[in-house]
Amino acid sequence: MRSFPSLGGAFVAVILFVTTLSFANGQERANAVVTAVAKTKDAIVTIKSAKANSSNDVAGTGVIVDKRGLIITNLHVVGGREDVVIRLANGVELTGRVFNRAAHLDLAAIKVNINGKELPELRLATTQDLMVGEDVIAIGHPFGYVNTVSRGIISALGREINLPSSGYVLKGLIQTDASINPGNSGGPLLNINGELIGINVALRDGAQGIAFAINASTVEKYLASTFNSKVSHGLKTQEKVIASFGDRQRLEVLESNGSLKAGDQIVTVADNAVGNRFDLERALSGKKAGDAVQLKVVRQGGQTEFVTLTLAAGQGAGAVATLTPSTSAQPQREATNVSSASNRR
Question: pTM here?
Answer without folding.
Answer: 0.81
